[in-house]
Amino acid sequence: MRKILIVEDDISIGSMLKKFIESKDIEVEIAENGMKAKHISKKFFPDIILLDLKLPDIYGFDLIGDIKQYTKEIIIITAHGDIDDAVRATKMGVYDFFEKPIDFIKLGTSIENIYKMLDLKEKVENKKKNSNKIIGNSNAIRSLKLKIKKIAEKNISVLLLGESGTGKEVLARSIHNLSKRKKFVAVNCGAIPEELFESELFGYEKGSFTGADTAKPGKIEMADGGTLFLDEIGDLPKNMQVKLLRVLETKEVERIGSTKSKKVDIRIIAATNRKFDEMIKNGQFRDDLFFRISVIELIIPPLRERKEDIPELANYFVMNANEDLETNVKEISKEVLDSLVNYEWPGNIRELRNIIYAMVALSDGNILTCDMLPVKLKNINKNKEFLKIPLGLNLEEVEKIYIEETLKKIGNNKTQAAKMLGISKVTLFAKLKKWKEE
Ligand SMILES: Nc1ncnc2c1ncn2[C@@H]1O[C@H](COP(=O)(O)OP(=O)(O)OP(=O)(O)O)[C@@H](O)[C@H]1O
Q: Modified residue 4-aspartylphosphate is at which positions (predicted)?
């Protein structure tokens, strides 16, 4: 059910507004002063707050900081509005501004527009949620899926390790979706300038520094009851590492400029593509924080080590691209699939996704063919070397020739050969020993 809170001390205007909005099938609550407005918004979580500026106990603008976090949009209604107020409202992110007497038709349109926008946002969110499906059936992915099912509901910190684009965020969101936690709040530590970290994570009170016009909760507080995903945690500055550790130990957070701390219940999922042991050795990352966040460590292997997932992923991205680009590609040609499987994917799944999207966008038929491949993939099959093996040999003899030729090609490096052949080093040694003894 849609919900609107009216903050208005004039009882007759309040009840007129209530009647008008209820006629649109929206649930309405009224608060006659600022204190009630804070109290009700915390429990009612209205989609929209209609806020009168002149209230008996507070000036409407000074209330916005306290109620903003409990609603999606604010509309201001005022008897004595001037240009300055309208400008201030826009700066504070208020959606619309109405002068009394209220033009109900215009107000109705404004409310409808907000709901149209919110519906669209929800659709995009849902789509995002669905895109958290973990595609792949390789041993590595199957085992990851099993593990996350086991740990999802337990309130333990998880550290995801893997190269860029391997799907760490997808995995983090899947863990969250399988848990009963409320919201998923993501922070990309690699994208925040150092001087903004503290306000981003901890929030601030109004007036705590120049430019802090309103109070703002930080990401930690916003994740209360939910999951806080700290992407690129290796980029967290040292002074923030100490502060984060304190939050995890005390389960309390304090906004900048506040003397009061607030209890928070968060589950941390962190991710990095950097090597923690080196960072700890160099003093770049605190080991006490590392132990706190890495109760469970999950390693996501690069795509080149689970090539059997490539066809399924490629088909999945063709389907997604069809939906997003309104195309109708039905198939990937065998040659294209061969090239995709033979490529090494330094950018992992993100790179695969981008290439498929580009190919779908370029195609004008219903099959993806080699001429649409980017140059780096076009000649990949041509560059492959082929080995002629005579017919009539038994499989073990074929295997022996193949392994010997592979070793020759890479300068007898047995570790690399085992990797290329997809067998363990022990197996490779055992085979070589057996053939030597024969
Ligand atoms: N197993 C998967 N199934 C389906 N799509 C996936 C999978 N893994 C990754 N993707 C897709 O690949 C892209 C990159 O994934 P994601 O952002 O999770 O990677 P990441 O490891 O967090 O990258 P970075 O380290 O750069 O932040 C996204 O578009 C995501 O939807």
A: 52
Q: Which residues line ligand 1 (CB under 6 A)?
A: 131, 134-136, 162, 164-170, 231, 271, 273, 349-350, 353
Task: Return d(Cα 305, Cα 81) in angstroms, integer.
Answer: 64
Report the separation in Å between the CA atom of 299 and the middle of ligand 1, taken as the mean of its atom positions. 14
Mind listing the pLDDT tens digit for each residue in 21-63? 999 999 999 999 999 999 999 999 999 999 999 999 999 999 9
Report the predicted TM-score, pTM, of the whole model to 2 decimal places.
0.65
**CA-based nearest residue to 220, from 230, 205, 206:** 230
How many residues in total does the chain contain? 438
Ligand 1 centroid – CA 164 distance (Å): 8
Find out whether 304 and 340 touch, Cβ atoms under 8 Å.
no
- Atom number in ligand 1 closest to CA 132: 31
Span from the CA of 6 to the centroid of ligand 1 (angstroms): 42
**Distance between CA atoms of residues 247 and 268, nearest Å:** 11
For domain 133-301, give the CATH number: 3.40.50.300
Domain layout of the chain by residue ranges? 3-127, 133-301, 304-378, 395-437
ipTM metric: 0.96
254 strand-pairing partners: none
**Interatomic CA distance for residues 159 and 172, integer angstroms:** 9
Give nearest CA residue, ligand 1 atom 25. Answer: 164
* Topology given in CATH for the domain delimited by 395-437: Arc Repressor Mutant, subunit A (1.10.10)
